[in-house]
Write a structure and sequence with these properties.
306 residues, alpha/beta, 8-stranded mixed sheet, two-stranded antiparallel ribbon, 14 strands, 41% helix
C-alpha cells in the first residue's frame, strides 16, 4: 500500500486550493503526468478518491478535505523546522515569531508589523498564517511568540489572551442590490438572500451567531478564497458576510452595510505565553492597537462615503 509523502501532500493541497491539476502543476513546476501520478499515489494511500473530476477542474471529496486539513498542519510544521534550522546558522539580534488568521493578514497585521519595525528595527518578525486553533496550539507549545486569533471559549491553559478589537460584521453586496442603500440590515431582511459562503455549514457561513434560528441561509456558491467571494458578490450573484478587518481589501465594486444585531461582532485577540521578553511583545501589541484604531476609522469613512 502506498504511503503519504510530503510531495504528495503538497500536490493535494495545491490542487484543492486552485480546483485544478494543471494549475497545481504550474505552481509546483511539475508536469501534468507527475501531478496525476502523485494524486494517484495519495488516493492509494488514502484508500479512496480524494477529488471529484469535473468537466472543468476538480473538487476535493470529503476524504480529500480531511487530507488537505492534515497536509496544512504537516507542511506548516516542516516549514517551521526549516526556519528553526536556518536560524541556528544565522541568528538575528532578535526575533518575534507572529501568527495570524487570514483576514487579519489583509491589513491589520501588515500595518502592525510596519509600525513595529519603526519601534524595534533590530527585531525580525517571521510571520505564519493559519487557523486560530492551530495558532493557539503553536503559542502554547512555544513555536510562536504571539498570535492574532479569534479566541475560543476555552483557550489552552498555557496561553494568555488580550482583546485587541471587537470587529463588527458587515454584509457585502453589489452596488445595485436592493439593500445597498440601507445603512443597516436585520437578519430577517437577509432571510431570502442568496449567499456566497466559505462553507456549507451555517455556523461558519455567517461568522457568528446573529442569524435568527427560524431560517437557514440559501447558499448559492461556496468559495473558500476571499478573491473568489468578492468576484461573485461584485457580479451580483449573492451577498456575503465580511469582517471589518477585511473591509480595506474590498474592491471598489462592492458596498457594505452593517448587520443590526448585537452579536454581529467577532473578537480579535492577541495570544501569548506568560513570561518571555516583554519589550518586543508590548511594542507589537501597541502597534496592533494603533493599526486596529486606524482600520476602524477607515471602515467608518467607507460607510459614510456613497
Amino acid at each position: 500500500m502506498s504511503e503519504f509523502t510530503v510531495a504528495g501532500l503538497r500536490v493535494v493541497r495545491e490542487a484543492a486550493r486552485h480546483g485544478s491539476f494543471s494549475v497545481a502543476a504550474d505552481r509546483l513546476g511539475y508536469t501534468q503526468s507527475a501531478i496525476s501520478r502523485q494524486i494517484a499515489l495519495m488516493e492509494q494511500a488514502a484508500g479512496r478518491p480524494l477529488f471529484d473530476r469535473l468537466a472543468r477542474g476538480v473538487r476535493p471529496t470529503e476524504a480529500g478535505l480531511v487530507v488537505v486539513q492534515h497536509a496544512e498542519a504537516v507542511l506548516g510544521e516542516l516549514q517551521a523546522t526549516r526556519q528553526a534550522l536556518q536560524d541556528l546558522g544565522d541568528r538575528p539580534p532578535s526575533r518575534l515569531r507572529v501568527g495570524a488568521f487570514s483576514t487579519a493578514m489583509a491589513a491589520l497585521v501588515p500595518r502592525a508589523i510596519a509600525a513595529f519595525a519603526g519601534r524595534e528595527p533590530r527585531t525580525r518578525v517571521p510571520l505564519r498564517e493559519g487557523l486560530s486553533p492551530g495558532l493557539l496550539k503553536a503559542v502554547a507549545r512555544g513555536r510562536l511568540d504571539l498570535a492574532v486569533v479569534t479566541p475560543p471559549r476555552q483557550p489552552p491553559a498555557e496561553v494568555e489572551l488580550v482583546t485587541i478589537l471587537e470587529d463588527p460584521l458587515f454584509v457585502a453586496m453589489a452596488p445595485g442590490h436592493p439593500l445597498a442603500r440601507h445603512p443597516s440590515v436585520t437578519g430577517e431582511m437577509l432571510r431570502d438572500q442568496p449567499w456566497i459562503t466559505g462553507s456549507t455549514e451555517p455556523g461558519t457561513t455567517l461568522l457568528g451567531a446573529w442569524a435568527a434560528p427560524s431560517w437557514q441561509p440559501e447558499i448559492a456558491f461556496v468559495a473558500r478564497d476571499w478573491v473568489a467571494k468578492f468576484g461573485l458578490v461584485a457580479a451580483g450573484l449573492g451577498v456575503t458576510v465580511v469582517p471589518g478587518l477585511a473591509v480595506p481589501a474590498l474592491p471598489p465594486g462592492i458596498v457594505i452595510t452593517r448587520i443590526d444585531h448585537p452579536a454581529a461582532v467577532r473578537t480579535t485577540a492577541l495570544a501569548s505565553r506568560p513570561g518571555g521578553e516583554p519589550g518586543p511583545r508590548r511594542a507589537f501589541a501597541e502597534s496592533l492597537r494603533d493599526a486596529a484604531a486606524d482600520l476602524t476609522a477607515e471602515v467608518r469613512h467607507r460607510l459614510r462615503t456613497p
